[in-house]
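Worked example

This section walks through a single chain of length 189. The input is the sequence exactly as stored; nothing has been trimmed or padded.
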Amino acid sequence: MSTLAESAVKALREAGAVLTPGLTAEELEALQEQWGIEFSADHAEFLRLAVPLGEGWVDWRGPTEPVAHLLREPSVGLLYDVEHNQFWPASWGERPGDTAAALRLASGRLAGWPRLLPLYGHRYLPPGPLASPSPVFSVVQSDVTYFGFDLVEWVQREFFGVPLPTGRELRPSVPHWTQLAEGSEDFDL
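Given that input, the structure is written out below as tokens.
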């Protein structure tokens, strides 16, 4: 029986993705140290098997600025919505009337959220340690949705147009991001 990561790589190959050799254990460790991140078990296994390249993909072996941009983007998008679209979870307390003060407070709150790791375009995986299966989130500012409850479902949806199954409960939960994806009234539970 193949793992989720193996099945996802196989499906990507069928979808015509350009797959380069996977990262070595040393490369994975160096990336985690360089960026101060930890890949989830699914994400790490996926990257050990293959590193997809081309438009939309993260070139983990490439220049650092595109990776840095993608790592910042979920928080930057939420801060944009704090500034321009009234995004403000109730558990953050009363929103300051001054936009600069609201942004400072929001930045502090978001610093405590798990740092999502880029996968493809605006699709993100949660960081480790996280038990398998890892959900794939679509993150555009505060519009956060599930784009797959695991890597295989994500590939099927992203590249083959297969809809997500309905009535499925996500496990494990990813603090704050799960609440956003599930449309909670308070995104900081």
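What to look for: The CA atoms of residues 131 and 172 lie 7 Å apart.
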